[in-house]
């Protein structure tokens, strides 16, 4: 059985998150959480939150507590979200103001209790 978790509008660049996500594809949740805990980048917290939530969704679907070694990451994807404009401006050409922009991303995790 599969369970899905989507985190939207996370304030990290999709490239920085995707760099971490590619390292944990296909692993079980126990390996993935221990691997992420050893990293030092702040983007690991968002990915860890999504993985734990997907595991909790699966245990809720199965109506029993599942072991983290029995749950596998089937698919994990990071897509670009909207650009956030802050309320500050940079100086632009010809006296114009150019707004600060920040990247956002959406993370979608699919976990399964069967190894593929």
What report would you give on this structure?
The strands form 2 sheets. The protein has a 3-stranded antiparallel β-sheet, covered by helices on one side. A two-stranded antiparallel ribbon has the order 3-4. The model has no long low-confidence stretch (mean pLDDT 94). It has 116 residues and is of the alpha+beta class. It has helices at residues 14-24, 29-37, 44-62; strands at residues 2-10, 72-80, 84-91, 97-102, 105-112. It has one domain (2-112): Alpha-Beta Complex (Ribosomal Protein L22, Chain A). Helices cover 34% and strands 34% of the residues. The chain contains 3 helices and 5 strands, in the order E-H-H-H-E-E-E-E. The termini are close together.
List the helices and strands and how they pair.
Layout: E1 2-10, H1 14-24, H2 29-37, H3 44-62, E2 72-80, E3 84-91, E4 97-102, E5 105-112
Antiparallel strand pairs: 1-5, 2-5, 3-4
Helix pairs in contact: 2-3
């Amino acid at each position: 059985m599969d369970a899905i978790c989507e985190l939207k509008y996370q304030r990290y660049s999709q490239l920085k998150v995707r760099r971490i996500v590619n390292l944990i594809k296909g692993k079980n949740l126990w390996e993935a959480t221990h691997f992420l805990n050893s990293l030092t980048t702040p983007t690991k917290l968002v990915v860890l939150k999504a993985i734990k939530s997907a595991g909790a969704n699966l245990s809720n679907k199965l109506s029993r507590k599942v072991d983290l070694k029995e749950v596998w990451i089937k698919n994990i994807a990071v897509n670009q979200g909207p650009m956030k404009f802050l309320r500050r401006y940079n100086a632009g050409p010809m006296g114009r103001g150019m707004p600060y922009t920040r990247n956002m991303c959406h993370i979608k995790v699919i976990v399964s209790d069967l190894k593929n």
